[in-house]
Every structure is written in structure tokens, then in C-alpha cells.
Amino acid sequence: MAKTNDFTKIMQDMMSAFPVDSRGMQDAFRTSAALGERMTRVAVEAAEKSTEITAKWTKDTLGRIHAMAKAKDEPAEYTKAVTDFASASAEMAAENMAAFAEDVARRSNGSVQVQVFPAEQLAKAGENFPGVARGAFEAAAAVNFQWGTTIPEMNAPTIPYLFTDLPRIRKFLGGSEAAKFLEGLLERRQVRNLMWLYTTRQSIFTSNRKPIVALDDFRGLKIRGLNPLTDHALTAVGAAPSAMPGPEVPPALQSGVLDAGLTDVSAAVSRRFYEIQRYGTVAPYFAVISHVYVNPRWWNGLRAEQRQAIEAAARKAEQDQIGVTEETAAAAVGELRAKGMTIHEQTPEEAETWKARMQPPVIEAFLRLAPENGRRILDLMQAL
User: Fold this and answer.
1) Domain 9-200+288-327: which CATH class?
2) Which pLDDT value is given to residue 306?
3) What pLDDT, on a 0 to 100 scale, did the predictor assign at position 218?
4) Domain spans of the chain?
5) Fold match between 9-200+288-327 and 203-285+332-382?
6) Looking at residue 28, what is its pLDDT?
7) Closest by alpha carbon to 243, among 221, 264, 228, 259?
8) Which among 113, 159, 248, 355 has most CB atoms closer than 10 A?
9) Would you say domain 203-285+332-382 falls under CATH 2.30.22.10?
10) How many CB atoms lie within 10 A of CB 34?
11) Which of 317, 327, 268 lies closest to 46 in space, CA to CA?
12) Are the beta carbons of 72 and 6 closer than 8 angstroms?
């Protein structure tokens, strides 16, 4: 996957909770005698749902899928992804990946086996994309914005209020032209998309002085920023965004280095924001989509029935993840309230007001970042 040096360190902190390391695909990934007993590795550093969702997963980080040929077992290694904003229950997402592994085995009559492993055992995050493209290992995973300037169009879902309606997300996952367009851009980079996993669409703006409800409430606030692209929205309303790794945010809020926080609702629970922040405004600020991609040559070498089994399991995993993400976000809001935070859930009218001020500067910056195809992907996503 692409290096994230064009994004702030926060983005690297952000993606480390959704462990989706998997290894496997013994037998099945053997396509001919040429592959022999060679084990294949499949990195699936699937963007975790917020590097903060649960202590366990936020430390494990994204995982990967190690695919190997029949007969042997060799440790798979995979990278750690970055995202504090890809939350929604890393734990439940990991369960979904485990279900995916079982489904693949069942549909392939045992010819394909997938095992799940956490942490950076196979490659560093920045090595995933080039490794898959070269064929050093067969697959990896990332969250959309990790592609940075390598495939800038992949940043589109993170534009405020562009892609946060659940019906629109469902349409995207249903073989939409928008998804196909992004998949085409991935293919230009010599990787083939296998599946999209909806990760989050619910953010929370936290504070200790007063609720952040009106746009004027942002004025003068030192707030935790996310990346150079989305931070244009915060500066547009008078805030002063500051990039900061997830673990450093609570101490910064306590000490006054930051006046306000911004994270995924599930991350707010795992980071125990309820102990240091009185108020929280939950908003469909932007979406994060994780995805798994594979080496095309390896994929084309599989038997047709193996590809069909994996694709069928992937389609099911995509749909299952929708429920996982929505249920986890709803539970997180309830838990924050139960722990004593005063939670305001943004109304549709408030969302439109925020969108009118915060979205335009981000779109402008996005089009500068993706001059060739930026307008095309925006049109396709708005048409969903």
C-alpha cells in the first residue's frame, strides 16, 4: 500500500486497530505445478476501524492475509496500517474476517484456507502496495485515504458530507460505477481489488467547555486535525487544527494543548474520552472505506472455482460489514452517554449547514490533489 508520508502522523496512528491479518489459502492458491508447494502470502492490512476502537485491536493494528500453497505453513507477515478514524468495532470487524475465512473454506470445499494474523509480521505498511504489485506476496489491505497521492482519487470518501449516507454507501458496495472506476485506477497500479469494507461514517467532535453545535463554536478552537486534505474544513470555520497521534490526544485535551477532539465514535469509547470530555457532537462527517487488493497475475492463475469461492465470500463479507459498523457506532454513542457525556446527535438541518461551509474548501483542495480524475469520481459518488 502506498506510503503515508503525505499525510500527518495521525493518519498512521489512526489505522492501527483493525487486525485483518490472514494467512492461508493453502492448496487452493496453488495454480499449477509451477507453484508447487511454494507458499503464497497475502497481506491484508485491512484498515482497522479506528486505531482506537478497542485496546486489543488498536494495538494489534491492521492485519493481513497470508496465503500459502498446499502442504506447508510459513509465518506470514503483514503490515500495520494507519487510522484512528477507521473505527466501528475492530473486534467485530475481525470476527467478520474470521467468518470470511470460514466461508472461503466452505465454498471451496476446503481447497482454500485463510488464517488471520495481526501486526506487522510480513511487511511494513509502506511495503504492501509495491510488494503486491511486484508479486512478492499476493494480497494486502488498506483504508481508502492511505493511497495518498499515489491514487489521490481514493481520498474522495473522506470529503466532509459527501459519502456519509448509508443508502449511498450500500449502492457503492453493490457494484457501482464509482467502485468500478476506483478499481480501474487500482488496476493501473498493477493491483486488483477484491472487496470493499465499510469502516465508519460517524465522527464525534468533543469538548470540555461547551458543546460544538453551531459553526461559530469552532472559532478559535485548537482541535485535533486529521490530514492536510480534510483539515481545510476545520480552518474554514475558524478552528486551528493540529495533527496528533491518537494516544496523545487525551493528554493534550487534559493539559489544554487541545481545546477539542475529533475522532470516530467507537474510538472515543476505547480512548475513554468520557473521562476527560463533557460534550460530544456526533456527526456523519466523512466516511472511511477499507479494501483488500490482490496481485492480478496470482489471481488469474487460480482455478476458476477458487476465484468464484473467494469472490462469493468477499461479497458476503462486504454486506456483513455494513451491519457490524452501524451496530458498533450506535452502541458507542449509547455507551458514551451512559458514561456521563452529554451527547448531541447532529440534525439533518445542522449537517446541511456544516456541509455548506466545510465541504467546498475540501473539494477545491481535492481537485488540486487529483486534477486528472478528481471531478469524475466526485460526479460518480454524488450520483449514487
Assistant:
1) alpha beta
2) 93
3) 98
4) 9-200+288-327, 203-285+332-382
5) yes
6) 31
7) 228
8) 159
9) no
10) 8
11) 317
12) no
Query: Which cell is 49 given?
Result: 476501524
- What's the 3-state SS for the chain? CCCCCCCCHHHHHHCCCCCCCEEECCHHHCCCCCCCCCCCCECCCCCCCCCCCCHHHHHHCCCEEEECCCCCCCCCCCCCCCCCCCCCCHHHHHHHHHHHHHHHHHHCCCCCCEEEECCCCCCCHHHHHHHHHHCCCCEEEEEHHHHCCCCHHHHHHHCCCCCCCHHHHHHHHCCCHHHHHHHHHHHHCCCEEEEEEEEECCEEEEECCCCCCCHHHHCCCEEEECCCCCHHHHHHCCCEEEECCHHHHHHHHHHCCCCEEEEEHHHHHHCCHHHCCCEEEEECCCCEEEEEEECHHHHHHCCHHHHHHHHHHHHHHHHHHHHHHHHHHHHHHHHHHHCCCEEEECCHHHHHHHHHHHHHHHHHHHHHHCCCCHHHHHHHHHCC
